[in-house]
Amino acid sequence: MGWNGKNRMTVAVLVVLAILIATAGVFMPDIRGQLIFKPRQGRAETMVMQIAARENRLRMGEGHFDTFAPAQAAAHARALGLDMQDWPGEDFLFDASLMPDNSLRLRALPRPDSVRDLKIGAQMFVAELAPKGGVNRSGWYP
What pTM value is reported for the model? Predict the structure, then answer.
């Protein structure tokens, strides 16, 4: 069996495919992060910051923050007047809890099934609201 044109072409195609597969394997986490995780995480971050703004206004008017559990998050967001069209409830659970210093901690927790299905990363977004208003800190935590 000699190296005729057909054999050379087959080997060249296999080498190119191997290089493409290796390259995709190396860069797949970055590609997944940019194309899949980032837009979904952006929606969750936006929702938490919108809830934070409404909670701050509520605190100024009533003198206290409202807390809620993940099961009540959608109803609470509706009561705050948020646009439910962009509610990322299929990928995240939301909750709000009062801290010992009377600040409010808002969290967007990843749903385990969404992490398992590689729809989102295993990170939560947390925003802490100061007792006197404003956001003390916010960000993504592993």
Answer: 0.77
CB 74 within 8 A of CB 85: no
pLDDT score, position 116: 94
Q: Which two tokens stand for residue 117?
A: 């299905």
Which pLDDT tens digit goes with each residue over 103-117?
Answer: 999 999 999 999 999
Based on its alpha-carbon atoms, the radius of gyration of the chain, rounded to whole angstroms, reads: 23
Q: Across-strand partners of 104?
A: 98, 129
Element housing 95 (H / E): strand 92-98
Contact 65, 127 (CB under 8 A): no
Q: Which amino acid is at 132?
A: K
- Those residues whose C-beta lies under 8 Å from the C-beta of residue 109, and which sit 6 or more positions away, are 70, 92, 93, 94, 95, 124
Indicate if the pLDDT at residue 1 is higher than 60. no
- CA–centroid distance for 82 within its chain: 18
